[in-house]
């Protein structure tokens, strides 16, 4: 019997199984939809969609550096136990590598793309893993840079990807480690929006310890406080994590320029327990 694309789509919609698995089941049963569905259930491949309603806030941050580009991704699952599973780790590493190589436009485009190694659609590969691992798995986000890139991932929970104008692996790795621990928001002071400065100035002006001071003195104190606060949020002005006597800007001066960076924390913005990843990274440095 000729297995049509419509038949494959119908069975996929009913089961949530991968496209190639659906087609094989239909071929095996000569197009009998009910029997094909039973085969998929027996193989544990017909439950992926049911699992998609669960909360997935655990998982891994993974990265991949490929010649002239680098990528960092977040893949979520339901439990930390699965996040430590070798099958899940391999899936995350493979997805990071494919993002680096394929340069997708966005998450949807990536999920709809085809893996050149196996010929399967990425979303189908993930559904197959849902069936075999038994938990909801979602590809949440990615970032990709071209040029001189470096990455650092701490225990799969916090990750950094940077792009620089020159290649210096040791220095680039140190910068990644610093960003992981110190969590800067901007590269330089020039990147800070004026609205951010205005907001912090307003907050400081309204603090109780300054309300009774003369206006001129209060403005001077607030200016100093805001300046210090902005410096703490700028990469180049932060004290270098391995040597606080110098700033990151002084460390890299004349050696390279940081063009871009991204910092992912696993599950940030999702409902999950909070952990102090910065302290964890610092403890590793000291240890």
Question: Please, could you describe this protein's structure?
Answer:
46% of the residues lie in helices and 20% in strands. The protein is built from 13 helices and 8 strands. It has helices spanning 5-15, 19-28, 33-42, 48-51, 80-83, 86-102, 107-112, 122-133, 169-182, 194-205, 215-232, 248-252, 277-286, and strands at 58-66, 69-77, 138-146, 148-154, 158-164, 239-240, 243-247, 258-265.
**Largest sheet: number of strands, sense, barrel closure:** 3 strands, antiparallel
Series of H and E elements: HHHHEEHHHHEEEHHHEEHEH
Number of strands: 8
Level of helix content?
40-55%
Q: Termini separation (Å)?
A: 65 Å
Strand order within the widest beta sheet: 1-2-3
Q: Counting H and I runs of at least 4 residues, what is the number of helices?
A: 13
Strand content: 15-25%
**From the helix content, strand content and strand pairing, which structural class follows?**
alpha+beta
Shape estimate: elongated
> What Rg, in angstroms, do the CA atoms define?
24 Å
State the low-pLDDT regions, or none.
none
Mean pLDDT: 87
Task: Give the helix/strand layout.
Layout: H1 5-15, H2 19-28, H3 33-42, H4 48-51, E1 58-66, E2 69-77, H5 80-83, H6 86-102, H7 107-112, H8 122-133, E3 138-146, E4 148-154, E5 158-164, H9 169-182, H10 194-205, H11 215-232, E6 239-240, E7 243-247, H12 248-252, E8 258-265, H13 277-286
Antiparallel strand pairs: 1-2, 2-3, 4-5, 5-8, 6-7
Helix pairs in contact: 1-2, 1-3, 2-3, 6-8, 9-13, 10-11
């Amino acid at each position: 019997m000729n297995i049509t694309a419509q038949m494959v789509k119908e069975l996929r919609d009913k089961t949530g199984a991968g496209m190639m698995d659906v087609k094989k089941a239909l071929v095996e049963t000569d197009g009998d939809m009910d029997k094909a569905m039973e085969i998929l259930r027996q193989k544990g491949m017909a439950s992926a969609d049911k699992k998609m309603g669960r909360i997935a806030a655990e998982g891994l941050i993974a990265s991949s550096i490929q010649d002239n580009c680098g990528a960092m991704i977040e893949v979520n699952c339901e439990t930390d136990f699965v996040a430590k599973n070798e099958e899940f780790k391999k899936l995350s590493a493979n997805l990071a590598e494919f993002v680096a190589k394929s340069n997708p436009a966005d998450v949807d485009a990536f999920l709809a793309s085809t893996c050149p190694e196996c010929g399967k659609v990425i979303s189908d590969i993930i559904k197959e893993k849902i069936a075999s691992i038994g938990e909801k798995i979602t590809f949440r986000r990615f970032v990709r840079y071209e040029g001189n890139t470096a990455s650092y991932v701490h225990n799969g929970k916090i990750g950094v990807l940077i792009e620089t104008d020159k290649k210096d692996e040791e220095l680039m790795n140190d910068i990644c480690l610093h960003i992981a621990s110190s969590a800067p928001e901007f590269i330089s002071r020039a990147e800070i929006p004026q609205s951010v400065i205005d907001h912090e100035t307003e907050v400081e002006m309204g603090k109780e310890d300054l309300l009774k001071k003369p206006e001129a003195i209060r403005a001077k104190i607030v200016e100093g406080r805001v300046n210090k606060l902005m410096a703490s949020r700028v990469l180049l002005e932060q004290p270098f994590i391995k040597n606080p006597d110098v700033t990151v800007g002084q460390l890299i001066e004349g050696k390279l320029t940081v063009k871009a960076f991204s910092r992912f924390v696993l599950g940030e913005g999702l409902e999950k327990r909070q952990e102090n990843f910065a302290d964890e990274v610092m403890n590793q440095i000291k240890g």
